[in-house]
Amino acid sequence: MDPTLSDRAQWLRRELHRHSHRYHVLDDPEISDAEYDRLFRELVELEDQYPQLQTPDSPTLRVGAPPLEKFESAAHTLPMLSLENAFAAEEVQAFHRRVQRQLEGIEDIRYTAEPKLDGLAVELVYRDGSLVRALTRGDGFTGEVITRNIRTIPAVPLTLRTAGAGPLPALLEVRGEVFINREDFGNLNEERLAKGETPFANPRNAAAGSLRQLDSRITATRPLDMFVYGAGRLSDLLCRSHVEMLSAFRSLGFKVNPLVRGPIRLEEALSFYEELTQKRHDLPYEIDGLVIKVDDLESQATLGATSRTPRWAVAYKFPATQETTRVLRIEVQVGRTGVLTPVAHLEPVPIGGVTVRRATLHNEDEVRRKDVRIGDTVLVQRAGDVIPEVVKVVSSKRRGTEIPFTMPKRCPQCGSAAVRLVGEAATRCLNTSCPAQLKGSIAHFASKGAFDIEGLGTRHIDQMVEKGLLTSAADLFFLDHGTVEGLERMGPKSAENLLAVISARKTISLDRFIYALGVRHVGEHAARLLAEHLPTLQALMKLSEAEIAEIDGIGPVMASSIHRFFRQPENREVVQRLLDAGVRIQASQRVEDDRLSGRTFVMTGALQTLSRSEAKNRIEAAGGRVTGSVSAQTDFLVTGASPGSKLNKARDLGVEVIDEDRLLEMLGAAADSA
Ligand code: IVH
Questions:
Q1: Contact 615/666 with Cβ under 8 angstroms?
Q2: Which of the two ends of the chain, N or C, has the fewest CB atoms closer than 10 A to its terminal CB?
């Protein structure tokens, strides 16, 4: 073998690690995905031809390896403890007083405060800079060896970076949380549903299920991510404080949560907690509290640990998102695809700051499995923006007078037969002109990810369908002022606004258009995949089922559903009427518009004309990038009404601050060139 090939392999490995780190950890890629793929394929081919060139840290191993029979277990060198919980500021203050007492002589105690991620704790072991082993937390003393699975996570460095961090530690045990962010979780479930698989209940279960796969090739397809927050045993890593340690980890190539704050006083940690309770649902991942840690490592050592928890840290948890209440009645809703969903109407109960009155029971099997009856006391859960659901019945509260629920044999909206098809959990109304389906499909059409028609509420839609003013979503574009103003709960000003919004939405990207049609199994993610592959809607409508199934990421169930949708004359007619109404579809393929390419934007405050997601889509369509927080890499901060703390940060860093008009100008210029 030509010795230069070994040099080439080494160079490729280094480059691939560097670019993967820039992309997944720093969120600041230097090369395009296509260029990355080219380098990756070159390395795969080299290793295929000369297997002796594949090293244990090769990025090609990120794709997973053949399945294991079972996981081995192994002991943690230092136990992985859990955390003491606090549910009120007083409990955190009590913790602080205890720390003060035990650290007598140290007046001014500083803390680090970190969002508590709801994922899985793991430990990564590096020897001389290479990842050699990864363990789950297990019972805290012994965990399962999941090294192959961990290798597939792009945010995990396979080799440590040396830049600026001095010599590499001989031994490094790093601990952190593996998780899946909300958007990826949604996409993953969408794909599973389309493949006829059961969706995961929440991101945490999805992360756990993905990480504990015996076949790491499956893990490799799951969107796992990881933040590191602590250490096991370390050698030669000289840090005096927790914050210093985290920044050393960052330099070594790990991903550390950018929201970590420290060193700060206790009061600041408490106000950070308040801030997070407001912000938590806008974060891309789920958190369940704030971990407050004594920052000074020597003080940590002095404080030590009990058998279960360290004395230098406390988890200040957010208020419960589960409560018990009573089921008053169970009603059946009919959705846009004709699916009948049993919904429990509850005695109103506040959960996490919102009054919950209804909770979904999903379907007949779920009602039966949980055995939910009218009059039961139930545990209800609200997580993030998702619809509240009944978790279980509190059976000790059963009195025997509760009434079991049976699924109706007829659609409660139109009276046609409701049937359950073989192999499906859902009961459906088969009448395609059922008004409930029409109402639901129009509401979907107008929803945020679709045509985003703000100001059009479900009440308005219901009225218009009932009056025969809307027979399909296309009719929205033919509404006149008189009709809209005549609706209940609609003044002249809101009527005018609504019509203006409808007219402004006539130009729409292809992916939104596809999503808006409400094809079964086609969510936002799938719609985006389709739009990226096809120049026009007409091209999609012409494809055969087999051709659709060939598109990367589109499974057979989805392909068949899409194909069937466009074969139906009523659906083709709606598409035609939309086009006749003047709806213009813009290709959402990566347009050759690069006016904003290489420019990074951050948004703060409420914009006037554009919604956040619209602004993001348009910036991206023009080749720009949108990120969540201001850093030295940010080019522009776009400010709307009442901007947040990002504005100060931008000023500190000298980032250019622009308003929405200026953004529109930049976008306008970008669109002109397309
Ligand atoms: S420190 C010895 N920091 O919470 C202290 N834990 O309830 C070790 N967790 O098992 C934990 N985010 O899975 C720490 N920033 C964070 C965390 C965090 C999430 C989890 C971790 C741990 C559990 C304890």
A1: no
A2: N
